[in-house]
Automatic annotation (TrEMBL):
<comment type="similarity">
    <text>Belongs to the class-II pyridoxal-phosphate-dependent aminotransferase family. Histidinol-phosphate aminotransferase subfamily.</text>
</comment>
<dbReference type="Pfam" id="PF00155">
    <property type="entry name" value="Aminotran_1_2"/>
</dbReference>
<protein>
    <recommendedName>
        <fullName>Histidinol-phosphate aminotransferase</fullName>
        <ecNumber>2.6.1.9</ecNumber>
    </recommendedName>
</protein>
<comment type="subunit">
    <text>Homodimer.</text>
</comment>
<dbReference type="InterPro" id="IPR015422">
    <property type="entry name" value="PyrdxlP-dep_Trfase_small"/>
</dbReference>
<feature type="modified residue" description="N6-(pyridoxal phosphate)lysine">
    <location>
        <position position="222"/>
    </location>
</feature>
<dbReference type="InterPro" id="IPR015424">
    <property type="entry name" value="PyrdxlP-dep_Trfase"/>
</dbReference>
<keyword id="KW-0808">Transferase</keyword>
<keyword id="KW-0368">Histidine biosynthesis</keyword>
<dbReference type="InterPro" id="IPR001917">
    <property type="entry name" value="Aminotrans_II_pyridoxalP_BS"/>
</dbReference>
<dbReference type="InterPro" id="IPR004839">
    <property type="entry name" value="Aminotransferase_I/II_large"/>
</dbReference>
<dbReference type="InterPro" id="IPR005861">
    <property type="entry name" value="HisP_aminotrans"/>
</dbReference>
<comment type="pathway">
    <text>Amino-acid biosynthesis; L-histidine biosynthesis; L-histidine from 5-phospho-alpha-D-ribose 1-diphosphate: step 7/9.</text>
</comment>
<dbReference type="InterPro" id="IPR050106">
    <property type="entry name" value="HistidinolP_aminotransfase"/>
</dbReference>
<keyword id="KW-0663">Pyridoxal phosphate</keyword>
<dbReference type="GO" id="GO:0004400">
    <property type="term" value="F:histidinol-phosphate transaminase activity"/>
</dbReference>
<dbReference type="InterPro" id="IPR015421">
    <property type="entry name" value="PyrdxlP-dep_Trfase_major"/>
</dbReference>
Length: 364
């Protein structure tokens, strides 16, 4: 058997530690996962209440057009029905974009580090990946533009960026869109959109009126807390959506996922509570870090990239032994750091204490 050559150099996604596994290993009653930017407050109680009624006719295939969810999102964003494409998580939209636009001989431009699925899917399609290092956590948009040539098909912007949490400011992104050639598809991944509290961010949905080479990605996995159901979407001008549609599996979002997303979108008070609580706990974390002279990137998301005087792996191991799973910066391409998802108030107080103790113990 002969597989694609590139796959031989690639490794499958390595999931974070399983909670039950860690509990046994360290003899702990309780584990708190602050590693995958999941919502510590769960998901809308309305979903829990109303969903059972909506789970009928599971013997039937889902609505492949997601018509009801589509109508809902259309009204929410004030766009046309044909401007939307739904995916099994926005992960799948990334895959659909790569399947549609990338092939050997083409190239794609992205920041480094950023969300790893852009690179992963681009490589599988045989495209050349051009990575431009972040500048102090920010996308270096000038250098990214310099990497664009005739063969560039897709350019990825992640704002706020995973794993740094840094967002792209309004005028910076506006200038970029003006200068980026129209043969390049610009992807603006806004997985953490709901968490942004700054006013100084680009109105990407509005910008779709001016750019046919733009797609905006959003998801129900993060602030909406529905990561387990897998539903995300892309918003773009109609011709671009029509170009992407043949690459989409016909029944890619499930009946249950569609129904839950509809209810979740209606419960904006849950989003408000979640994001306000996140902002408060993030502010306390930043104050704690300031007081302890620990540096970090200013985050507009639900996680903070924290710089350490020791390796991220070492801090990861320490926190793991205390019942907290975080992401080590070594695994993310930023050594001597951890990426910490903002949890609830009580857990944040404990994890901060543990970070402080570890650093006190290693100070020379
Ligand atoms: C979590 C995340 C996604 C993927 O979300 P799903 O909708 O669950 O697939 C996409 N982009 C970024 C930057 C993320 O952090």
């Amino acid at each position: 058997m002969k597989s694609k050559e590139i796959l031989k150099q690639m490794t499958p996604y390595k999931p974070g530690k399983q909670i039950e596994e860690v509990k046994r290993e360290y003899n702990l009653d309780r584990i708190v996962k602050l590693a995958s930017n999941e919502n510590p407050f769960g998901f809308s109680p309305q979903v829990k209440e109303q969903l059972p009624e909506l789970i009928t006719q599971l013997e039937k295939y889902p609505d492949g057009y997601a018509a009801t969810l589509r109508k809902k999102v259309t009204g929410f964003l004030n766009v046309d029905e044909e401007q939307l494409i739904f995916g099994n998580g926005s992960d799948e939209i990334v895959q659909i974009i790569c399947r549609t636009f990338l092939e050997p001989g083409a190239n794609t431009v992205m920041a480094a580090p950023t969300f790893p699925q852009y690179r992963h899917n681009a490589l599988i399609e045989g495209a050349e990946v051009r990575e431009v290092p972040l500048n102090n956590g920010h996308h270096d948009l000038d250098k990214m533009l310099q990497q664009v040539d005739e063969q560039t098909r897709v350019l990825w912007l992640c704002t706020p960026n995973n794993p740094t949490g840094v967002h792209i400011k309004e005028n910076v992104l506006r200038d970029f869109m003006e200068n980026c050639p129209s043969h390049v598809l610009v992807v603006i991944d806004e997985a953490y959109y709901e968490y942004m509290k700054t006013e100084d961010h680009y109105d990407s949905i509005q910008a779709l009126q001016n750019y046919e080479n733009l797609i905006v990605l959003r998801t129900f996995s993060k602030a909406y807390g529905l990561a387990g159901l897998r539903v995300g979407y892309g918003v773009a001008a109609k011709p671009l959506i029509h170009t992407l549609e043949p690459s989409r599996e016909p029944f890619n979002t499930s009946t249950i996922a569609q129904a839950a997303a509809i209810i979740a979108l209606d419960d904006q008070s849950f989003i408000e509570e979640t994001t306000n609580e996140n902002a408060k706990n993030k502010q306390s974390l930043m104050s704690f870090l300031d007081e302890n002279q620990i540096s970090y990137f200013e985050s507009e998301a639900n996680f903070v990239l924290i710089h350490l005087p020791i390796s991220g792996d070492e801090m990861f191991e320490h926190l793991l032994s205390k019942g907290f799973i975080v992401r080590s910066g070594e695994a993310l391409g930023i050594p001597q750091s951890i990426r910490l998802t903002i949890g609830d108030k009580e857990d944040m107080a404990i994890v901060q204490q543990e970070i402080q103790q570890k650093l006190a113990g290693t100070a020379k």
